[in-house]
Amino acid sequence: MSITAVVVAAGRGVRAGGDLPKQFQTIGPFCVLELSIRAFTSHPQIDSVVLVVNPTDRQLLDEHLSDEILRNVTVVDGGQTRRASVQSGLAMLPDVSGKVLIHDGARPMVTAGIIDRVIDALNDTPGAAPALPVSDALWRGRLGRVLGTQDRDGLFRAQTPQGFHTAQIIAAHAQYDGPDAADDVEIARAAGLDVRIVQGDETNIKVTYPADFARCAALLKQQEIRQLDIRLGNGFDVHRFCDGDHVTLCGVAVPHDKGLDGHSDADVGMHAVTDAIYGALADGDIGQHFPPTDPQWKGAASQIFLEHAVKLAGDRGYRIGNIDCTLICERPKIGPVAASMREALARIMGVEVDRVSVKATTSERLGFTGREEGIAALASATLVSE
């Protein structure tokens, strides 16, 4: 049984202010309407989305909605009233034997949890809608004066999406003969349909006034922070000195009276950085991805390993936040070539150079590095979800 969302956005929203209808004004990187639509196109139980707009807003759709969104919705012109607009959307439903969720396009912060609760309730009731119980004291008044109080018991603040069995809500709209209804629950109840109340959410704001944009922007920022996935990994590598006239460190050939011994080009710094990225992904190390027993990697440039680690991170939805590499040796001196090393690593990883740190330290003549038997490297990598 298919589930379709009808997003109604044909109104003008003049109380929200601004030069554009409120549904096309922005909250963060997206306009109000795109955020509303994304809640449904990204939901695993929603099969299709119908968008109802004012016929004069067709150009605004192209200007303010992404191509991704426009590819995934069916657009239909609305009518002179909300009810007429909803009926236009219902007429486009691909399956009248399914279910439909009717949502105000001016509610950009609707959550997957609300959508889930409405869908679940429709398993054993013809209609379901989110709402919040009224908790504030209620007054009756006129001309700025309080005339009395109103009992709040049993009163709820209605939200959307409001869900129904498609054939039943189409029939309810067809037989409704009252004035333009406040919402689809009113039309459903006029037809005798039972509507269940499910738990709404205070964050499911309907943008009505100018201040509502700032409230939604703050909520969106909180969501982004909660959804941000940051991973930290570290890598450590050692290579002994051997005969040679240079060492390759972090992608730069540095003149020296010795070389570094290794199955590949023995770039100890780049190996540490690569292992730090693998570590942040919890995906082993260079030896697992490029076994030293495999002859094809004999003398291979370590750039191959680093590029593989960066691509693996990207394929899994992460970008490089920053890299910090420390080379531990008495000689050669790293300071004069550290900037070139940073540039080489940044180029290979496809990041800005200010996200890459390369520095050096000695071990105060202690241990194998102090005896100038080899070079060690320690690196940290931060990965941030895209």
- Our Rg estimate from Cα atoms comes to 31 Å
Q: Low-confidence parts lasting 5 or more residues at pLDDT below 50?
A: none
Helix percentage range: 25-40%
Q: What is the domain tally?
A: 2
Indicate the proportion of strand residues.
25-35%
Tell me the distance between the termini: 34 Å
Cofactor: a divalent metal cation
Catalytic activity: 2-C-methyl-D-erythritol 4-phosphate + CTP + H(+) = 4-CDP-2-C-methyl-D-erythritol + diphosphate; 4-CDP-2-C-methyl-D-erythritol 2-phosphate = 2-C-methyl-D-erythritol 2,4-cyclic diphosphate + CMP
Region (2-C-methyl-D-erythritol 2,4-cyclodiphosphate synthase): 231-386
Keywords: Isoprene biosynthesis, Lyase, Metal-binding, Multifunctional enzyme, Nucleotidyltransferase, Transferase
Can you offer a commentary on this structure?
- The protein is of the alpha/beta class.
- The protein folds into two domains: 225 residues, Alpha-Beta Complex (Spore Coat Polysaccharide Biosynthesis Protein SpsA, Chain A); 156 residues, 2-Layer Sandwich (60s Ribosomal Protein L30, Chain: A).
- It has 13 helices and 19 strands.
- Strands 1, 4, 5, 6, 7, 10, 11 and 12 form an eight-stranded mixed beta sheet that branches. A five-stranded mixed beta sheet has the order 16-13-19-17-18. A two-stranded antiparallel ribbon has the order 2-3.
- A hairpin with a 2-residue loop joins strand 8 and strand 9.
- Helix 9 packs parallel to helix 11.
- The protein starts with a strand and ends with a strand.
Please give the structural blueprint.
Elements lengths: L2 E7 L16 E2 L2 E2 H10 L6 E6 L4 H7 L2 H5 L2 E4 L4 H9 L8 E6 L7 H10 L5 E7 L4 E5 L2 E6 L5 E3 L3 E4 H10 L8 H7 L4 E5 L10 H18 L2 E13 L3 E4 L2 E4 L3 E2 L7 H13 L5 H4 L13 H13 L2 E11 L9 H12 L6 E6 L5 H4 L3 E12 L1
Parallel strand pairs: 1-4, 1-6, 4-5, 7-12, 17-18
Antiparallel strand pairs: 2-3, 6-11, 7-10, 7-11, 8-9, 13-16, 13-19, 14-15, 17-19
Helix pairs in contact: 6-7, 9-11
Keywords: Isoprene biosynthesis, Lyase, Metal-binding, Multifunctional enzyme, Nucleotidyltransferase, Transferase
EC number: 2.7.7.60, 4.6.1.12
GO molecular function, one term: metal ion binding
